[in-house]
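Handout, section 3.2

Students often ask what a structure token actually looks like in practice. Rather than define it abstractly, here is a full record for Sodium-independent sulfate anion transporter isoform X1. The first block is the sequence as you would receive it.
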Amino acid sequence: MKLNPASDHVYFNDGFKCSSISINTNLNESSNADVNGADSGNGSQGSNEFILTDDGKKIIPPTKPMSCAKSWLQEKTRKTFKKKNLHKRIPILRWLPKYNSEDAVGDLVAGITVGLTVIPQALAYSGIAGLPAAYGLYGSFLGCFVYIFLGSCKDVPVGPSAIVALLTFQVAHGSWQKSVLLCLMCGIVEMLMGLFGLGFLIDFVSGPVSSGFTSAVSLIILTSQVKNILGISAKGTTFVEIWTEIIHNIKDIRASDTILGITCIVVLLIMRLLPSCKIGPKEPHLRSKTQNVINKIIWIVGTSRNAILVILCCIMGVLLHSYHEGTPFKVIGYIPQGLPSFALPPTHLSVNETLTGKEETFVDMMRSMGSGLIVIPLISLMENIAICKAFANGKPVDASQELIAIGAANIANSFVQGFPGTGALSRGAVNNASGVRTPLSNIYSGALVIISLIFFTPYFYYIPNATLAAIIIAAVVFMVEVKVVKPMWRAKKSDLLPGLVTFIACLVLPLEMGILIGVGLNVIFILYSAARPKLSTEILTTPGGTEYLMITPDRCIIFPSVDYVRNLVNKQSLRNNVPVVIDASHIYGADFTAATVIESLLRDFASRRQLIFFYNLKPSICALFESLSPTEFVVYYQEQQLDELLKERDYSQDKLQTVGV
């Protein structure tokens, strides 16, 4: 109820009378309180968003830009430094205060175990990236330390991975300068994606596309290492190119490298079975102390198989080395002793440092990286999230926070000449099986890498290339996801298409193009599904005995699907010639284009004098449709209302059928 609008412009709500809250509606008292500067505490307070003038207009009070900026900054600072947000963005604050001796022992054991795994993998994966072995070690320690503070998953050991190493090779083409700069730029992209909450982008890489990509990458990596097993040279970036080179140079095969490589693969595959071997009863509490100790030793030997094999082959290389003839097999060669220098990544390439013989500026280097700056961060996140989900025990995974953590780790690694890295699932499994408790385990694995760089790099000279190739092959051969084909075929055969296309595209084309083709095909499938909703039709009878056609769309009506829906509704309504009811229970969204087509649909029905109603349409969508519908637009929400609506419009079943005839 409105009183004295011209004089005081105050509105009263009759609901105040029924309220239990005491509200002072005496204007004179309120005015007096304002004059005296006292707050009575009983009156309803006005808004400071606008000022109401004498003629009833609302005007926004003038504000100073500096005061607005200051208030915005204060609000952002308050939200940023809330305890909940700090624990979310700096996870170490969440678990460090509760850290105890049991956590320390678990992290120590897991960190040392992972460290023994990461050193041979780093040496091997640098070969996949087309870089000297030292660069794999350079990217395996500083990022680990950064992840301790920002990482949200205890099982993630940051460092080189086979898939990211291969992507690095295809983008940087074996240039260490470009690889290091790529590490910095990928870290920046990952950091920005995480800060802007773009972790959801990983959801656009479906299971079939991910399986096709991973399987293709596994075959390419395996193929790239065949040349080291055979002791020949073979250049190329794609599956087809590498095999063409291998076949062309097969005449140069070296028997010693081949025998050593095949032997190492067999030994690794046998040792892979050791962690699952148990002596004594199946239940641990029924075993004797001796049996438990033996089982633990067997598990450690099986888990550290890569390090054990590298050490044995390195000793063999030292013993067989001759000053005049060298070793009977190819070795990785010289690795600089000591830690790398801390410096900015290269931003310029001289004539002697490029493959083309032309000088490259920072812009040229960035241009040559192309889509790799987007694909590598996404694939890195995909690998990292796979580890988090595998060992999360149902807990939610914050993809954006993982992007921030990986990005910060890669930025740090770029200053010590590392190439892009992420969490590797094989090392994550070892970490989890070793009893890791917190991300602090990364400090021990990183420390082992530093120790190896300072003291043991002279001995790495004698490690055979065939041994490192065997380590890679024995790891990636199990990444080919053949087992997903059968259940996918049973569940939904059409899902095989994007997976198969991604697999073939990644084998024939560069990997970044292959994954983009797979994601693009998936998006097309999603758009087609949105453009062709399912419409179920059924002839029903009202309580009053009148037949009508119920049409039920199974999803929202948006611009790609509206014409399709209109044509189907018209087709079915002409065929049955009865009133039509569109069940809108599943229509949770619509747009302007949908509203214009609904207007056309109503005109179609009005022109042939056929009734159409909407059932259970959400109010927000109802308002959108009503705004553009000049003809009668009727919505009802209870089934018994339909007879009343038909009666109001003098509808007769016999009359309509006669008109239809």
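Discussion prompt for tutorial groups: The first helix runs from residue 15 to 18. How would you have guessed this from the sequence alone?
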